[in-house]
């Protein structure tokens, strides 16, 4: 495997399959990034939160996610989202008594604007000794 894989773009029809499909694809990319099991679980949990909230923020009838993995790192780009949708998706990932799941588990969370649409950027990484 090379140090950095080419990004993969996944388009999922909004509906009940977003969660199961995104969970499996993110899990596969997290494993390819050689993330340890606890960080792989974190990546899948972030994918679940994105899947649960994305339908209310997308501009079309599909949830689009671009994934890229490199050594011990996974990047996820979700969009296009409506204006304000990136921040709202993150805000809605708060769980009572736990806090904001995406912000707590991700190493980086950004919202990128392209024209009138937004994209949520999430990075999960592992830096540690084995």
Descriptive report:
The chain is of the alpha+beta class and 130 residues long. It has a single domain (8-125), classed as Heat Shock Protein 90, CATH 3.30.565.10. The protein is 35% helix and 34% strand. The chain has four helices and seven strands; from the N terminus they run βααββαββαββ. The strands form two sheets. A five-stranded antiparallel β-sheet has the order 1-2-3-7-6. A two-stranded antiparallel ribbon has the order 4-5. A hairpin with a 3-residue loop joins β4 (94-95) and β5.
The computed structural class is alpha+beta
**Which regions have little confidence, pLDDT < 50, spanning 5+ residues?**
none
The second-level CATH architecture is 2-Layer Sandwich
How many domains is the backbone divided into?
1
Q: Could you give the order of the helices and strands? A: EHHEEHEEHEE
Number of strands: 7
Provide a count of the helices.
4
User: CATH homologous superfamily, by name?
Assistant: Histidine kinase-like ATPase, C-terminal domain
* CATH fold assignment: Heat Shock Protein 90
Strand order of the largest sheet: 1-2-3-7-6
Shape: globular
Any idea what the radius of gyration is?
14 Å
